[in-house]
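Q: Give me the 3D complex with nicotinamide-adenine-dinucleotide.
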Amino acid sequence: MLPIKTLTVLGTGVLGSQIAYQAAFHGFAVTAYDIDDDALEKARARFARLAGIYQTANVAGASEGKAAAALENLRLTTDLAGAVAEADLVIEAVPELIELKRDVYRKLAELAPAKTIFATNSSTLLPSDLKDSTGRPDRFLALHYANNIWAQNIAEVMGTGETATEVFDAVVEFARNSGLEPIEIKKEKAGYVLNSLLVPLLNAAAGLLLQGVASPETIDKTWRIATGAPSGPFQIYDVVGLTTAYNIASSSPNAGSQAFAQYLKANYIDQGKLGVATGEGFYKY
Ligand code: NAD
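A: Here is the predicted complex, encoded as C-alpha cells.
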C-alpha cells in the first residue's frame, strides 16, 4: 500500500477547510494553501469554528483538548512550492471553474515530487476533464467529500481509466484513516453516487418554487415528513451555499436552471444572503 502520511489541501473555503481540519483531527500533518493572506485569515477563523463544532458535536469523542490539538497539525501558507514539496497527497478544493483548476494542476505538475498523488474534490467535473493537466494521470483521481464532513462523512473515490489501482486503494485507505466512509466508485460518472441522487431532487425543488407551486418551507416540510429525511431541499441549498448553487445553475444550458440562477442572484446573492455560512439564505440562522 502506498503510504499517505502528509497531506496538502489547496483552497481553504467551505470544503477545503473541512477536509484539512478533518485530516488534522485524525492525526495527519496537513498543509493548507490559499492564494493570499486574506484567505488564510478566513481559514484560521474557519478552523477555530470547526474545532468548536467537533467539540460540541462530540465527534469521535472530541474533548476540548483533542479538538484544539488538531489545530497544531495544521500549517497555513501562501507558498505553493513549499506547500507541496513533501506531500504524499494533494487534495484540490479550489473554485469550481475548469480553467482555474487546470491552471492549478499545470503548476502542481511542475512543483510536486513524482510520488505525490493528486485528488480533486470537484462536484461537477469528471477527473477525465482535468487529468491531462496533471502530468501524472496514473496518480490522479477524484476524492469527493460531502459538506459538513464530520457528520456527513462519506468520501467518494473515483478514478479515470488511467488511475493506477494502487493509487485508488491508497486513497480509499487514506479516507478510512481520516474518519470517512469510503465510497468506491467503479466507473466514472458525473455526479458520483451522491449528486446523481441529490441534484435531481434540488432541481425539482427549484422548479416547484419558480413555477409558484409551493414555498420553500412547504416543499421542505413535505420532504421531511413524508420521507423522514432530516432536511428538505432548500435547507440543503443553504448548507451547500447559494454561491455554489448559483455557479452550477448558471453554467447549465437548461433554461430552468438559468432562471433559477437569476432568481438566486436577485433575491439572495446580491443581498449577501449566501446560506448558513452568512447567517441567512432561504432561512435565517
Ligand atoms: P469556496 O469558494 O468556499 O472555496 C474556494 C477556495 O479556493 C477559496 O478559499 C479561494 O480563496 C481558494 N482559491 C481560489 N483560487 C485558488 C487557487 N488558484 N489556488 C488555491 N486556492 C484558490 O468553494 P467550495 O465550496 O469549498 O468548493 C471548492 C471545491 O469543492 C469545488 O470543486 C466544489 O465543487 C467542491 N465541493 C463543494 C461542496 C460544497 O458543498 N460547497 C461539496 C463537495 C465538493
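A quick observation: DSSP finds twelve helices and eight strands in the chain.
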